[in-house]
Amino acid sequence: MFPSSCARAATATEARFRINASLAPARAARIVALDQGAAGVVRRVAAHEWATARFLVHEGDAPGAGSGIDPPNGPLLRGMDGAPALLSEELTHADVVFMIASEDGGAACASVIGRACAARGVMTAGLVLGDGYESDGAVAALRPHARVLLLSADESDVAELLTALRA
């Protein structure tokens, strides 16, 4: 009887072919909190060690938001250090944008981000923090603008998701 391929892979002979280098970051992620409830979660998650992830908070809608015409500089975003951030610059090297919401207050921002990402071929994902009917508004705000939409009542899922993507 011959050993299985898994058993052979565990031998010292096969171990010389293993790559022992650490994994490089897989994604240049941008994480955007769309409302104040999400901003608190994003600030706590941003305090962890991340490779290429950048965390942003939506500070309100720019003039002209909701008019059907995207503001020239995008929504008003700030980094964790409080510095203003331009959506166009943030998307330049981004692979994925995670929009995080706990209510529907950032719907106009989600719309602008979704259209900008679609135009650049950047993956979008939405994470709604809430439980039951309380999250309906946030789901409705993100659904049209996120290719992937997750619902969770546990804020630790944000960090788990980013860790899984090696952000």
Task: Write up what this structure looks like.
- The structure is a single chain.
- This protein is α/β, with parallel strands linked by helices and 167 residues long.
- The protein contains seven helices and seven strands; from the N terminus they run H-H-E-H-E-E-E-H-E-H-E-H-E-H.
- The protein has a seven-stranded mixed β-sheet with strand order 4-3-2-1-5-6-7, with helices on both faces.
- Helix 6 (136-142) links the parallel strand 6 (123-129) and strand 7.
- The longest helix has 14 residues, at 107-120.
- The chain is elongated.
- Mean pLDDT is 84; it is low at 62-69.
Mean pLDDT: 84
Which of globular, elongated, flat, extended, rod-shaped describes the shape? elongated
- Which structural class matches the secondary elements? alpha/beta
Task: Give the number of helices.
Answer: 7
SSE order:
HHEHEEEHEHEHEH
Helix-residue proportion: 25-40%
Q: Let me know the largest β-sheet.
A: 7 strands, mixed
Spatial ordering of strands, largest sheet: 4-3-2-1-5-6-7
Q: How many E strands?
A: 7
Radius of gyration from the alpha-carbon trace, in angstroms: 19 Å
User: In what range is the share of β-strand residues?
Assistant: 15-25%
Low-confidence stretches: 62-69
Separation, N- and C-terminal Cα atoms: 44 Å
What's a concise summary of this model?
By secondary structure, the protein is an alpha/beta fold. The protein has seven helices and seven strands; from the N terminus they run ααβαβββαβαβαβα. Helix 5 runs parallel beside helix 6.
Please describe the topology of this protein.
Blueprint lengths: L4 H5 L2 H4 L13 E5 L2 H11 L7 E7 L15 E4 L4 E2 L1 H5 L4 E6 L5 H14 L2 E7 L6 H7 L5 E5 L3 H9 L3
Parallel strand pairs: 1-2, 1-5, 5-6, 6-7
Antiparallel strand pairs: 2-3, 3-4
Helix pairs in contact: 5-6
